[in-house]
Amino acid sequence: MANYFKNQGAAITTAGLIVYTCPDTGSAGTDEAIIHSMIVSNIDGTSSANVDIKARATSSDTYYYVAKEVPVPAGSSLVIPKPVNLEATVDVHMTASANGDLETVLGILEIRP
After folding, report:
1. Segment 66-94, tens digit of pLDDT
2. 105: burial class by Cβ within 10 Å (0-12, 13-18, 19+)?
3. Do 20 and 31 contact (CB within 8 A), yes or no?
4. Which of 1, 5, 28, 51 has its CA 20 to 30 A from that of 100?
5. Is the pTM here over 0.85, yes or no?
């Protein structure tokens, strides 16, 4: 078993994007990841923006909200400190209410057999 700590960052858009997908290294889908923290920063100096954060359900095409329409005031950050556990190929998706305002960094532990 090997553990890998990593950070994953992205600029969040109004179209939404998959910020992180738990890898599948070919070990029969046994890879796992724990997102220890999610930080969403508003880099705009004047405008607030909202963020939606969703995680895909285990072995499903259904997303469930971690946060919905949460405002991130200009020049501040939203911190989601609770872990989100992911199985192989499961992902986290984020959408912003304004382009160019929000960026995110995820603190992740990947666990591979």
Report:
1. 999 999 999 999 999 899 999 988 999 99
2. middle
3. no
4. 5
5. yes
β-bridge partners, 38: 80, 106
Give φ, ψ of 44 to 5 degrees.
-80, 140
Going by C-beta distance under 8 Å and a sequence separation of 6 or more, which residues neighbour residue 91?
Answer: 18, 19, 20, 21, 22, 55, 56
Question: How far apart are the C-alpha atoms of 97 and 88, rounded to whole Å?
Answer: 29
The pairs formed by 25-29 with CB atoms below 8 angstroms and a separation of 24 or more are: 25/112, 27/112, 27/113, 29/87, 29/88, 29/89
**Which residues, 6+ apart, have CB-to-CB distance to 93 below 8 Å?**
16, 17, 18, 19, 53, 54, 55, 56, 63
Please, how many CA atoms are within 13 Å of residue 57, restricted to the half-sphere of its CB?
A: 6
Segment 3-16, tens digit of pLDDT: 999 999 999 999 99
